């Protein structure tokens, strides 16, 4: 098996948390993992992306070739458009519709959403609201991870177990909120055929 | 054997711990920072009391590590590529003195300049200093090489370079770790003259280094990291160096490469395998991340040779990092990119954080220099370099660590009034103190503004050597007390901060203004 995922967002949004949990879960299942990150200047409110690759075979490149991503997950709608060329022909696009408008000429949000919706296999959700409903807006990334979980060759309880491990030191309440957010995202992801 | 998911940087750090280092020496710099941070966070490093404090700059780091090596103990030095410019005096001369304990110099290059002002290739430095260089193709090799490099450094008494690139440093992979070796005891060198590079000794040291070159070559030819892989299609041979090997293999999607491939991960270049490859193939494509280092040597000054293909002959881009896509294209495979870019796309460049103290400082500086017009503000390396972008457009230079002060002094010498230097607190202690002394010695009419956010911000908030010392350093270097000014970089203090700056800018001598307020990121983290 092989899962190639491009994660996108704006510096400071925490896409690396998503990548870290998937990576940890995959290593626990004995899979090979490669996950590239962006550090330094780009992290200061600019566009950031991470390439996450899971495979039962050797993974060569740290970067996913253009047109090779099974999933593009973006925690910001404009950033989803930035990485479309990464998507494989039958790839899945997962995005939040909550914009980060830290640039002067941020395009019309409705136009961005329309463009995302034109893509055949996509999930466009208000992950912030779903996280709030689960108990904390800070669980937004877990909503997105939940949606992503529908397209990974990893058992769902491996992922939820990893979420429990990662958040355990923050207390039961935080674990519960994150699991709830994950479940909400997973339900949204299941609207797209696998 | 434990399996860990580690960044390339972290793999280097863990390997160095496992190789029995007693100290890691570094100044933060993307993409090398996480090596030291891993050691700082390591329980075993703490338990073994492995040195893991940041050095003030890369030159200090290099020489401190050489001091460890002098004592027969192992040390790791880490820096980004431009840090090696700073450390180069110690680096080049440590090849002449040679080492006692293993000394590995890890240099993280940043092709494509993700977070740097150039994409210089550190392999040139290794060649220049006549020392062996390792260049891992993946994180596991990075781990394995550190141990081999440490052993080689100790056995052949030479510092060894480990060259990594951004995509190696900042990518996680499964790492199988090995056994831990105990640290060696302190042992004074038998030949005490070896580290005294008086000409009489330096000539001997240089001769020793030159004599070792055939051995370095033999090690590279026998290295398990270099290998010639057979391929049926000899119409083209391929040299794949470091991480370039991965992109090559990716191109064939898990199938073997049909062409003969020379994988190069240890230098000097393995001549034996190189000759074999050119024997088999009329044409050879060189895939290497960074500069056309190998390719340039193969072309020679009389080139270009029609047998060598790569960055210099247009098959690969002349600049920028390798990607699986450019490598696939060089091999004649068309990229199968997904949907085209949307017309809605807008760039989202990095910017100062909301509430950043530098924003308040730049607003004050802009108003204070308004009457002078543009072109008077020299700046430096750090988050505040983003002040060059809109909405501030506040600074006119960023060259290298400390250059704000030296360039302002030079400009003042040339007659520019006012001449202003804007520098961060950590950058100031890295390389700003010596040019400030120059300015003091001549009472140059410059205004140095230190943006003191109490941390090394750009690289993620490491301890700053300047914290709590800036006023004393300036006074100690001879800036008159009445021209050492401190203000708090807050929007509400704008009017008085502008006034203070204006007063110092008109002063015909050295002024040292500290604009102080904690970095908004570290302040948030502390909460």
Plain-language structure description:
Chain A has 194 residues and is α/β, with parallel strands linked by helices. Helices cover 40% and strands 22% of the residues of chain A. Chain A has helices at residues 15-28, 77-82, 109-118, 127-134, 140-149, 156-167, 172-189, and strands at 2-10, 32-36, 47-55, 69-74, 87-96, 122-125. A 6-stranded mixed beta sheet of chain A has the order 2-3-1-4-5-6, sandwiched between helices. In chain A, helix 1 (15-28) crosses helix 5 and helix 4 (127-134) packs across helix 5. Chain A starts with a strand and ends in a 5-residue tail after the last helix. Chain B has 3 domains: 3-221, 3-Layer(aba) Sandwich (Rossmann fold), CATH 3.40.50.970; 227-330, Rossmann fold (3-Layer(aba) Sandwich), CATH 3.40.50; 357-526, Rossmann fold. In chain B, 39% of the residues lie in helices and 16% in strands. In chain B, the strands form 4 sheets. Chain B has a 6-stranded mixed beta sheet with strand order 2-3-4-6-5-11, sandwiched between helices. A 5-stranded mixed beta sheet of chain B has the order 8-10-9-12-13, sandwiched between helices. The two termini of chain B are 39 Å apart. Chains A and B meet through helix 1, strand 2, helix 2, strand 5 and helix 3 of A and strand 1, strand 7, helix 10 and helix 13 of B.
Describe the structure concisely for a colleague.
Chain A has 194 residues and is an alpha/beta fold.
SSE pattern of chain A = EHEEEHEHEHHHH
Question: Which chain pair has the greatest contact?
Answer: A-B, 56 and 49 residues
* Structure class of chain A: alpha/beta
The CA-CA distance between the termini of chain A, in Å, is 15 Å
Main features:
heterodimer; A: alpha/beta; Pyruvate-ferredoxin Oxidoreductase, domain 3; 6 strands; 22% strand; B: 527 residues; alpha/beta; Rossmann fold; 3 domains
Write the layout of secondary structure elements.
The complex is a heterodimer of chains A (194) and B (527).
Chain A: E1 2-10, H1 15-28, E2 32-36, E3 47-55, E4 69-74, H2 77-82, E5 87-96, H3 109-118, E6 122-125, H4 127-134, H5 140-149, H6 156-167, H7 172-189
Helix pairs in contact in A: 1-5, 1-6, 4-5, 4-7, 5-7, 6-7
Chain B: E1 3-7, H1 8-18, E2 21-26, H2 33-41, H3 43-47, H4 58-70, E3 74-80, H5 81-97, E4 103-109, H6 123-129, E5 133-134, H7 139-156, E6 160-165, H8 166-169, E7 171-176, H9 199-221, E8 227-229, E9 237-241, H10 244-251, E10 261-264, E11 266-267, H11 271-280, E12 284-287, H12 293-299, E13 308-309, H13 324-330, H14 357-368, E14 377-378, H15 403-414, E15 419-424, H16 425-441, E16 446-452, H17 470-477, E17 484-488, H18 494-505, E18 511-516, H19 520-526
Parallel strand pairs in B: 2-3, 3-4, 4-6, 5-6, 9-10, 9-12, 12-13, 14-15, 15-16, 16-18, 17-18
Antiparallel strand pairs in B: 1-7, 5-11, 8-10
Helix pairs in contact in B: 1-2, 1-7, 4-5, 10-13, 14-18, 15-16, 16-17
């Amino acid at each position: 098996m092989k899962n190639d995922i491009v994660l996108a967002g704006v510096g400071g949004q925490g896409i690396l948390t998503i990548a870290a949990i998937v990576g940890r879960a995959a290593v626990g299942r004995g899979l090979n993992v490669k996950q590239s990150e962006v550090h330094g200047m780009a992290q200061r409110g600019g566009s950031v992306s991470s390439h996450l690759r899971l495979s039962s075979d050797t993974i060569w490149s740290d970067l996913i070739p253009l047109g090779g991503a099974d999933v593009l997950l973006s925690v910001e709608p404009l950033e989803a458009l930035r990485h479309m060329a990464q998507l494989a022909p039958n790839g899945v696009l997962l995005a939040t519709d909550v914009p980060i408008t830290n640039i002067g000429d941020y395009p019309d949000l409705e136009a961005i959403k329309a463009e995302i919706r034109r893509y055949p296999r996509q999930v466009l959700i208000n992950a912030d609201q779903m996280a709030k409903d689960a108990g904390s807006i800070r669980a937004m990334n877990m909503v997105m991870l939940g949606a992503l979980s529908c397209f990974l060759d990893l058992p769902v309880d491996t992922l939820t177990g990893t979420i429990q491990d990662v958040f355990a030191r923050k207390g039961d309440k935080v674990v519960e909120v994150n699991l709830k957010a994950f479940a909400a995202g997973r339900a949204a992801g299941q609207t797209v055929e696998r | 054997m434990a399996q860990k998911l580690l960044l390339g940087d972290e793999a280097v750090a863990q390997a160095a711990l496992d190789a029995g280092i007693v100290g890691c020496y570094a100044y933060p710099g993307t993409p090398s920072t996480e090596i030291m941070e891993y050691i700082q966070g390591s329980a075993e490093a703490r338990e073994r009391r492995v040195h893991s404090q940041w050095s003030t700059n890369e030159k200090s780091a290099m020489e401190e590590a050489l001091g460890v090596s002098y004592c027969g103990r192992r040390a790791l030095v880490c820096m980004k590529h431009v840090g090696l410019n700073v450390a180069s005096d110690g680096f080049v001369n440590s090849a002449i003195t040679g080492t006692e304990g293993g000394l590995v110099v890890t240099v993280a290059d940043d092709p494509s300049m993700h977070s740097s002002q150039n994409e210089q290739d550190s392999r040139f430095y290794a060649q220049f200093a006549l020392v062996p260089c390792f260049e891992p193709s993946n994180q596991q090799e990075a781990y394995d090489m550190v141990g081999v490099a440490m052993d080689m450094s100790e056995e052949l008494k030479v510092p060894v370079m480990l060259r990594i690139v951004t995509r190696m440093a900042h990518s996680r992979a499964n790492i199988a770790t090995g056994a831990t070796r105990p640290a060696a005891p302190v042992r004074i060198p038998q030949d005490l003259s070896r580290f005294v590079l008086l000409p009489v000794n330096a000539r001997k040291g240089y001769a020793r280094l030159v004599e070792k070159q055939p051995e370095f070559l033999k090690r590279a030819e026998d290295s398990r990291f270099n290998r010639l892989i057979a391929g049926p299609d000899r119409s083209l041979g391929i040299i794949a160096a470091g991480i370039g090997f991965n992109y090559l293999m990716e191109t064939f999607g898990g199938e073997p490469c049909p062409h003969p491939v020379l994988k190069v991960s240890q230098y000097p270049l393995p001549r034996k395998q190189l000759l074999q490859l050119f024997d088999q193939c009329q044409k050879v494509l060189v895939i290497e991340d960074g500069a056309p280092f190998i390719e340039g040597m193969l072309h020679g000054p009389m080139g270009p040779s029609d047998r060598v293909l790569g960055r210099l002959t247009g098959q690969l881009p002349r600049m920028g990092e390798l990607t699986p896509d450019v490598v696939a294209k060089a091999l004649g495979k068309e990229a199968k990119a997904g949907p085209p870019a949307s017309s809605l796309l807008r760039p989202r460049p990095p910017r100062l954080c909301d509430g950043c103290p530098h924003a308040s400082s730049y607003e004050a500086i802009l108003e204070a220099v308004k009457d002078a017009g543009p072109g008077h503000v020299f700046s430096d390396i750090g988050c505040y370099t983003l002040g060059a972008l809109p909405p501030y457009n506040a600074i006119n230079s960023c060259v290298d660590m400390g250059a704000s002060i030296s360039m302002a002094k030079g400009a003042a010498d040339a007659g520019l009034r006012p001449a202003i230097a804007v520098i961060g607190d950590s950058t100031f202690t890295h390389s700003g103190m010596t040019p400030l002394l120059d300015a003091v010695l001549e009472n140059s009419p410059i205004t140095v503004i230190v943006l003191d956010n109490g941390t090394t911000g750009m690289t993620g908030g490491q301890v700053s050597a300047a914290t709590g010392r800036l006023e004393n350093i300036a006074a100690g270097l001879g800036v008159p007390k009445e021209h050492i000014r401190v203000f708090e970089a807050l929007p509400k203090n704008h009017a008085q901060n502008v006034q203070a700056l204006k007063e110092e800018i008109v002063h015909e001598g050295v002024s040292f203004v500290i604009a102080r307020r904690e970095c908004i990121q570290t302040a948030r983290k502390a909460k």
